Amino acid sequence: xxxxxxxxxxxxxxxxxxxxxxxxxxxxxxxxxxxxxxxxxxxxxxxxxxxxxxxxxxxxxxxxxxxxxxxxxxxxxxxxxxxxxxxxxxxxxxxxxxxxxxxxxxxxxxxxxxxxxxxxxxxxxxxxxxxxxxxxxxxxxxxxxxxxxxxxxxxxxxxxxxxxxxxxxxxxxxxxxxxxxxxxxxxxxxxxxxxxxxxxxxxxxxxxxxxxxxxxxxxxxxxxxxxxxxxxxxxxxxxxxxxxxxxxxxxxxxxxxxxxxxxxxxxxxxxxxxxxxxxxxxxxxxxxxxxxxxxxxxxxxxxxxxxxxxxxxxxxxxxxxxxxxxxxxxxxxxxxxxxxxxxxxxxxxxxxxxxxxxxxxxxxxxxxxxxxxxxxxxxxxxxxxxxxxxxxxxxxxxxxxxxxxxxxxxxxxxxxxxxxxxxxxxxxxxxxxxxxxxxxxxxxxxxxxxxxxxxxxxxxxxxxxxxxxxxxxxxxxxxxxxxxxxxxxxxxxxxxxxxx
Length: 500
Ligand code: AHR
Description:
The chain folds into 2 domains: 17-381, TIM Barrel, CATH 3.20.20; 387-499, Immunoglobulin-like (Sandwich), CATH 2.60.40.1180. The mean pLDDT is 97. A hairpin with a 3-residue loop joins strand 16 and strand 17. Helix 3 crosses helix 4 (148-155) and helix 8 packs parallel to helix 9 (323-338). An 8-stranded parallel beta barrel has the order 3-4-7-8-9-10-11-12, surrounded by 6 helices. It has 10 helices and 25 strands. The protein is globular, with a radius of gyration of 22 Å. With 500 residues, the protein is of the alpha/beta class. Alpha-L-arabinofuranose binds next to loops.
């Protein structure tokens, strides 16, 4: 099979937003405890943070990290996680049927974020709580001092304000599973009033209203429209969440997950712009895709406990990812980059152990899942402007999405550095594709690097005993001649080509 794309700096979508490469740390399973934090671990620093995980988070290229949930936040009392550890209460976490020790809270997370070199992004509880608690939290986190809450932060060892800019107004409030689940009108009013009050305290915040929990929600689009009718002037973003999995052995549909993500983004843009017209606002609503990933929800071996069992940091949602999952993750990043004009923040859910690119053993090793690699390479390589590319080539039928292009791709171009990167997937399960890249408009004459994630066995995984079974390999079939690049994309593969 053959496919082709043309690169031209005139086809600029938007600058690459660094926040596209966000992640998520929730008090869920072993993401926090024995994930980012494990005092007593041989690699723990003086604050109990695992330096092996910090190193991997930096290598992953994560830029912004959402905290503390997720479903967890809708029952969370943020004050439980501040002050001397010995006086912090132990609570039931109803979202994940676990026991929360509160050893880690806001101040620890901000300290961890500084060490990881990431921007913290905070969620407030609009499930069991409301405007006042959000204001108290904001005052504690961001006010410079001289008030009850800001002085408590200073007394707790953080003299400087945390300066958290981006705040999520609740989490998945459309979901019946959510503690404090609301109708769109109820939530829209609460989000708007919370946002307005938070802005009185600090005008420059970036605020995210909850959109639908996924595209298949029965209230999808109506929810976005109603929430934004209430809150359009008060918020900057509407959120999107989406998880993908291979169902019933239908690999071709799974490999086309980014088609669904494209449609979801386009639909939310349409809903937001519809409200923009109705409220006659000059402001364009941005999208925060603050949960996305592969998640085997139907077959996950690690589901929440039930009954009298309320464990501390149990292994939950510890999905093990294979080569096809890595190709899908790479494809989802292509979709996010392609929409950089509207999707200006995104968080892969989650960072460690819980549906995560980084895994740890309690007291033991840390390793990279297959999905780590396309994320890390995209985060470190995408630079400058996103360029629109229109792959011409074969299409294949899928049961879930109809006919889809076999090759999907996006490019970025950094005019100052004189570099261009092409990110491409081959969704065919049995055929390689020769991709022809016309880079004459860029004058690109050299392939600096071409790496591919692929394997004879698309189900191959990384394990603690064989952590590098699946890694990117230099692609031997990449050539350039007079700014015409040719690269062979193996079946079920993800590739990055860097040109100078
Ligand atoms: O990321 C896991 C969970 O998925 C989050 O807690 C929730 O927001 C979503 O449903």
